[in-house]
Amino acid sequence: MSGVMRATSAMATAVKTPTTGRDAGRRAGRRGTAQRCGAVAKPSGPPENLERLRITTPWDDAKAVLKSEFGATDAELKHAESLSDEDLSKAYYMMQLCRDFENECNQAYMAGKIRGFMHLDNGQESIPALLADAIRQDDLKHSYYRDHCHALACGVDSGAVMAELFGKDGGTCRGTGGSMHIYDMDTNFQGGWALVGEQLPYAVGAARSIVLDKMLGREDAHDRITVVFVGEGGAQNGRMAECLNAAAKENLPILFLVIDNGRAINTFTKDVAANQEVFNQGKHYGVPGVLVDGQNVQDVLRVGRAAINHVRTKGPAILQVHTFRFNGHSPADPEHERNRKDEKKWARAECDPIKIFESSADAARVDLKNETAKAKLEVQRALDFANNSPPPPPGLAAELEYPDPSGKVDYSTREPAEGLASATAVTEKIVPAETLKALKARIEALRAMCVDPKGISIGDAVNLAILEEMLRDPTCLAHAEDLQAGSSYNIPANTQQAFGTLRAADEIIDEGHFMGKALGEAMNGYRPIVELMNANFGIYGMAELSSAGNTYATTGGQFAMPLTVIGAGGTAPNQSLGAEHSQPFHAYIMGIPGLKICSASKPQEAYGLAKSMIRDNGPGVLLLPVKMMKSRGPVTPDSFLPLHKSTVHHLASDESVKNNKAVTIVTYLHGVKETEEAIAELNGQGIDADFIELTCMKPVDWKTIQTSLQRTHKLVILDESTRTGGVGATVSAIVSENLFDELDAPVVRLCMEDAPVPYASEMEKTVVKRAADLVTAVTYMVNRTA
């Protein structure tokens, strides 16, 4: 890979005229004279305080890099080099379209028609010119928050983009996304992602979906690619290294298109990055990279074509485009950082890719006036469409909460997208007959355990659900750490042995990375299952999980998100795992819109909920009790449980209700075992309880609680999360707001205290509540209201 460094260093030379002390004095004198005369002297070069200048990357030098590092042939380079009049006209039109579109966006923003955050792309128009030239409609595209021009160049209708910025129903996402979230299913434009760097693993997942399509025999997958856009500042994010590793490990068809404008938001990237040569980041992984002058659209087209052809035919690559952004980070940017205003003024005059093309010999081959007029007409059409588009209906946000509304789907009858018969045929084609035979035998062995008097463990019950669903539907995938060995609780056991490394992927130790890949797969027709080993490790993937919850609504209902996350967690009494393994991850994610969150403390619930969640078209999280994973019980094979209903394990006797000695107990995870022990003790005192397990934690099934409170009128919550911001706090608030008249006494919450869970048992008892605390609380409540 050293050839990249040598060749690129030679060709990427910043152009700046040296200035001696005498020259500087003369220049200062000339400026002073000009000011005294009221004239403005034309500068002989860039301002002396500039820290970043234009580079040059001549095509002949670039060819040497492409040959040595990309293995490009003479024929491939000849094809990349050839720019017809039509190619140049198309490129010039796209640059003008993007410039005019962004200028009108700026005006609309100032007029209040566009709100929130907006990020303009002026000065970087050679990149959309390349997209329009070499990226196809069937390629998958993942952009970031500066996405307008990328969408236009990828074929998204300009009127729909402008209407989205205006918050109109005719927008790409019906006004749900806005400037930073442009999505369009028809052109495979998949974001518009607002968190810096988050798009990287999503794009890797999208690239995996192409490889998976090939494995499943889908003919349209042949030479499709994924392109992901990232700034050189965003490329300093650790996600970049993880994704280069993943792309290289599986030789994914993905282009990392690095837009290098020298600024990480506003900060000089060189102030925070030891090395800005992002094109060289792939060296460690064997991923080739090349740098090109983004102000020269002809060079961008040629080098970009060669890089894209490499991805289509060989594997991943990095294309770094050196540009200048003419606007601040956003219209609200005061641009106070050093030299920024001088740089912007100089770049607009000397580094404008449109002006540079117009001054080139190739400009004579293009009808500049005609292409400019066409671009202006298209932008005017976009403005007219946006202005005339109606606003979205007020209730749209609520409609888009879940792809599958609660209680509206019979999961037992939902077939794979391609139909059950076709899915079965695909599985028989891609899984060797002997492997398939062994897999079916393993499934039958697990099913036999379900009806054995000894029962089946929670871990094995979930493993059975996953194996059945992956056998039935070839779009079901698995991601986990230590997957080959079955992870910690056998949940993904035998998946890789049966389905191979592509469908059952062992992952690096970063949950955010493989959650992100799963998100990209889910957007492209797959049903990934992510196993967390320990649910608390999901903290690494909070950003990805948040975006998974938001995607269906933010895309205006275009992209479903059939992603299932399963993890053992919670906090059992005396578990002695310390604070980091005892966090209430379930409480942390309760506030993420669009997630369905379930829990299961018994094998039957674990199996039935897993089966339903895998078939649901939205993102779901299934939480299991970490200290009870080997507990056994019966399971009804082929059963499906609702994702919106809690489970009533026990009803108080009519006698206890009549004597006012009945309470409602709501709990989940390890609290189920503690409650069973407590009820046995309370029965000895003549006290009984309606016992409800929150098998559905979100949305909260308060109707089941209502039915119980109409009998008992007393509520105790045994909560495996903290007093502040916990699950019990949410349930208590809902009950107080909706069922206050049913209560004879205030709700009692037995929850973890707002302190890290300690290791030593003596301290832990004061933080984590258990059966003894529940007996005390229920007894007090009953006696108080007697």
Brief summary of the model shown:
With 786 residues, this protein is of the alpha/beta class. The protein is built from 30 helices and 23 strands. A seven-stranded mixed sheet has the order 2-3-1-4-5-9-8, sandwiched between helices. Strands 12-11-13-14-16-15-21 form a seven-stranded mixed sheet, with helices on both faces.
Describe this structure in words.
The longest helix is centred in the N-terminal third of the chain and has 26 residues, at 85-110. The strands form five sheets. This protein has a seven-stranded mixed sheet with strand order 2-3-1-4-5-9-8, sandwiched between helices. The chain contains 30 helices and 23 strands. It is elongated and about 95 Å long. With 786 residues, the protein is α/β, with parallel strands linked by helices. Helices cover 44% and strands 13% of the residues. Residues 1-43 have low confidence and may be disordered.
Q: How would you state the average pLDDT, rounded?
A: 92
Uncertain stretches: 1-43
Which structural category fits the helices and strands? alpha/beta
Net shape: elongated
**Over the alpha carbons, how many angstroms does the gyration radius reach?**
30 Å
Strand content: 5-15%
What helical percentage do the residues reach?
A: 40-55%
Number of helices: 30
Q: What characterizes the major β-sheet? A: 7 strands, mixed
Q: Strands of the largest sheet, in order across it?
A: 2-3-1-4-5-9-8
Instruction: Calculate the terminal CA-CA distance, rounded to whole Å.
Output: 81 Å
Number of strands: 23
